[in-house]
From TrEMBL:
Predominant location: cytoplasm
Enzyme class: oxidoreductase
Stated name of the protein: UDP-N-acetylenolpyruvoylglucosamine reductase
Domain FAD-binding PCMH-type per the UniProt entry, residue ranges: 17-183
Function: Cell wall formation.
Length: 353
């Protein structure tokens, strides 16, 4: 277990933003993770758990307490069952399952971050979510001071949400278990319309696993969503805002705003999101509110490839990031009456400040 003091945290995030931590511990085993968490809890020291840092916005003042970087490793396949240590690099794990001929997470290729973060956010993209394949999650419960195993149902998954996100101070994920599918080298049924179109198939069809993964990687790269140190469009947290889910009443009011601002013939994106609810596109809202690709003149700008990503152009601060995020939120609300919600976890700062 490695320990550093007054340690920079910006290099541990994909935004490359944020001040230092009073202390940074890097844990390579589950036992070291638990020991570090217990030590912080025993002394009342604030604790920040860091995985791949791809969904994290840290304030410029940094973090007064212990930052715990989880660097555990473990990839175990037993037939179609997969167990990943929390510190495993997610993109590498997806590649290995595809190479093994197993379907279920191939469309989650290219998503930066660690395996342990995937259940917290219920990570999803291109028609797949980890909640569809996770069987259970092993975590350290800070309330009971014990290691627990939570079933899929107990994880309380929903759109970009889970029990872990609802109780952020309680659980530290140690291991994630998945049930994958052996479909004779084929992918899971393709669900996402854009993916199906590029693949030249109909939604519900299956394609070779490697082809599905490569197609998703190409789609993500075209939107600046695959990490590249030389490409500032990837110095981000991916999608900065979640897609709004609206009640029937909220969607009717939104539809009226669309007609008022964009004309009677304009129809906003609308997708079923459970009984009485409709999901619309945050990217569409941002673009139609006037925040187009490349918007901004300062050190933080909207990606030149995708309106959902706010990007660090190289010399930014977290304050710069929050300023643009607030401008976008205000502009979308003024235009359409919808308040966007940030997807990344904020530490020491808030869009509401």
């Amino acid at each position: 277990m490695q320990e550093l003091h007054d340690a920079p945290l910006a290099p541990l995030t994909t935004f490359r933003l944020g001040g230092p931590a009073t202390r940074l511990i890097t844990a390579g085993t589950d036992a070291e993770v638990i020991d570090a968490v217990r030590a912080a809890d025993d002394t009342g020291t604030p604790l920040l758990v860091i995985g791949g840092g791809s969904n994290l916005v840290i304030g410029d003042k940094g973090f007064e307490g212990t930052a715990l970087r989880i660097a555990t490793r473990g990839f175990e396949l037993d037939g179609t069952r997969l167990e990943l240590a929390a510190g495993e690099v997610w993109t590498d794990a997806v590649a290995r399952t595809v190479a093994a001929g197993l379907a279920g997470i191939e469309c989650l290729a290219g998503i930066p971050g660690s395996a342990g973060a995937t259940p917290i956010q219920n990570v999803g993209a291109y028609g797949q979510e980890v909640s569809a394949t996770i069987t259970d999650v092993v975590a350290y419960d800070r309330a009971t001071r014990a290691t627990v195993t939570l079933t899929n149902e107990e994880c309380a998954f929903s759109y970009r949400h889970s029990r872990f996100k609802a109780e952020p101070e309680r659980y530290v994920v140690l291991r994630v278990r998945f049930q994958l599918e052996d479909a004779d080298g084929l992918s899971a049924p393709v669900k996402y319309a854009e993916t199906a179109r590029v693949l030249g198939v109909e939604p519900g069809d299956r394609v070779p696993l490697a082809r599905a993964r490569e197609t998703v990687l190409a789609l993500r790269a075209g939107k600046g969503m695959v990490l590249d140190p030389e490409d500032h469009d990837t110095w981000s947290a991916g999608s900065f805002f979640t897609n709004p889910i609206l009640t029937e009443e909220q969607f009717a009011a939104f539809h009226a705003c669309v007609r008022e601002h964009l004309g009677e013939g304009t129809e906003p994106p609308a997708y079923p999101a459970g009984e009485g609810h409709t999901k619309t596109s945050a990217a569409w809202l941002i673009d139609k509110a006037g925040f187009t690709k490349g918007y901004g003149s300062g050190p933080v700008r909207i990606s030149t490839k995708h309106t959902l990503a706010l990007t660090n152009r190289g010399e930014a601060t977290t304050a710069d990031l929050l300023a643009l995020a607030r401008e976008v939120v205000a502009g979308v609300h003024d235009t359409f009456g919808i308040t966007l919600v940030n997807e990344p976890v904020t530490v020491g700062v808030s869009l509401d400040d």
